[in-house]
Amino acid sequence: ETAPALEPEALQRQKIKGGYFNTLRQPKIVLSSLLMGSVTSVIYLFSTFAPFLAIEEMGLSPEDYGLLNTLPPLGLIAGSLMTHWLALYREKLWVIRLGGGLSFFCSVGMLALFAAGKLSPITLFLPIPLLYFGTALIYNNASSFAMEHMKDKSNGSAIMGCLNIFFAASSVFLAQSIASPSSFLLPLSFMTLSLLSLLLLRSVSRLG
Asked: What's this model's pTM, rounded to 2 decimal places?
């Protein structure tokens, strides 16, 4: 109803496949989607492994865990608000770089605390809002950056969503495939994903 003109060929299989392949040949969209996937992976991994660390290794009750788990979304909310404010003064790639650096700093600090034997609800939950704050800066700007470079936004958004979820699901699968995961797995995964996001950003920046 909202289309300015009917395009019967738009639903043809070859037309759709061609649109997907054309989108995949646009490196800015692919790299931006992988950036989003690195952020989504952080959230998925925390949601997967944090309950086992908190309840089984730290002895928290499910009620206490549920209460503490209200803290991480505060970082996402604050990061989204900060993204809106920074958009008035800074370029998207600068904000993504800020988010990646902040996420890397938080993950390194969390890993150092765990390595020092300070495994507690404080060291598990306190860095996460700040980590989520950084990931929100990355996700919001990476998605809008990708949309800016989409000629075919319908196919582009489909590819973007597919790569995002595929990356996140693959990260969780790889983490769960480790035979004897330790408490270091979570912060080490965060650090790896944060470093990867900075490398992806560097590749995007080189494209101009």
From this structure: 0.85
